[in-house]
Design goal:
about 325 residues, TIM Barrel, 8 strands
């Protein structure tokens, strides 16, 4: 078991991020450069002027409005080289944050949508960019494919097929997007195929919908990790299920405030998750949109959410336990 390693409290493990959308973490400078290269009309042409169009500066009314910030990032993905570049730069940025292992997730149909790219070739480009970044920057990277529930089950089928074309290069399948109007039950067969392909399952749930959405993700889709899971605190039976089954919670502090999922950091349930023995960790979600990085979430957002240094250490341990890696590789990465 990973937990038997002789680490000390207050001695941080290597940094790890399990919930980061690479298509929500594109540099402002890259957006501008790609916009110029492909003659794409942008709302501004300097980083400072573009920033308010891409980066959240105040809480939004809800998840859908937050997701609208993606539009300029996706607008510049005009070819496969652009997709390859943003994957590569995501790994470079992770290295600059001091991250040792990262799981980057992406929706091929979402990335392909603005310029009608082939989703399978988008997946191929992302894989190539991530692997080159891994080689150049020494960050261990695993990739998670997303089915965008907002598109509905029909287009999600197309997205699944694009991911399955490259199944050996992915470790997991995720469901993200408009949780409130597109419940997990619409995607049961998709996720059965994902599990049959050998993928792990992580699902966005309990963010824009209630605690029952978390139960559906676990029972209907086979999720062993949940993205966000904020609404779990509304139902003691759901909290008990997460604890007893050791379902990992990929918590995202700043983005949950920005989407108005919680009113402020102090009211975030992450502290309660830890107090009740749930397997939870801190992640960045969409750092390019949120204007943060992982050190910020650990050193600034976590204390504002009432978490102690010991809590942060525990969450790093939790993250390594939750990672979609074999035990031998976890030990190797931690000790290297």
């Amino acid at each position: 078991m990973l937990g038997l390693l002789p680490w000390a409290v207050n001695t941080r493990l290597p940094l790890i991020d399990l919930h980061r959308h690479l298509d929500g973490s594109i540099r402002l400078e890259t957006i501008l450069d790609l916009g110029r290269r492909h003659n794409i009309p942008l709302p501004a042409w300097t980083p400072a002027e573009l920033r308010p169009h891409v980066v959240v500066t105040e809480p939004h009314a809800g998840l859908v409005e937050f997701l609208a910030k993606f539009q300029w990032m996706i607008a510049v993905l005009a070819d496969y080289d652009a997709c390859r570049r943003v994957a590569y730069e995501n790994v470079e940025d992770a290295a600059r944050e001091g991250i040792r292992y990262i799981e980057l997730r992406f929706s091929p149909c979402f990335m392909a949508s603005h310029h009608h790219l082939d989703p399978s070739q988008v997946v191929e480009a992302v894989i190539e960019g991530a692997r080159q970044g891994e080689a150049d920057f020494g960050v261990r990277v695993n990739l998670i494919g997303i089915l965008t529930r907002t598109f509905g089950p029909g287009l999600a089928r197309k997205e699944l097929l694009a991911l399955l074309d490259h199944k050996e290069h992915l470790v997991a399948l995720d469901l993200a997007g408009d949780e409130a109007s597109k419940p997990a039950g619409l995607f049961v067969e998709h996720f059965k195929e994902g599990r049959d392909a050998g993928w792990q399952i992580t699902v966005h749930a309990g963010e824009a919908a209630g605690a029952a959405s978390i139960v559906e993700a676990v029972e209907k889709l086979g999720a062993t990790r949940i993205g966000h899971a904020v609404r779990a605190v509304d139902d003691p039976s759901v909290m008990a299920m997460l604890r007893e089954r050791r379902i990992g919670i990929e918590a995202n502090l700043t983005s949950n405030v920005q989407t108005s999922t919680v009113p402020n950091l102090a009211s975030h349930p992450l502290r309660q998750f830890l107090a009740e023995g749930l397997l939870a960790c801190i992640n960045t979600d969409d750092p390019g949109i949120s204007g943060i990085d992982l050190p910020h979430e650990l050193d600034v957002a976590a204390p504002a959410a009432g978490l102690t240094p010991e809590d942060v250490d525990q969450m790093l341990r939790n993250a390594w336990e939750m990672a979609f890696l074999g035990e031998d590789e976890k030990h190797s990465l931690i000790s290297s």
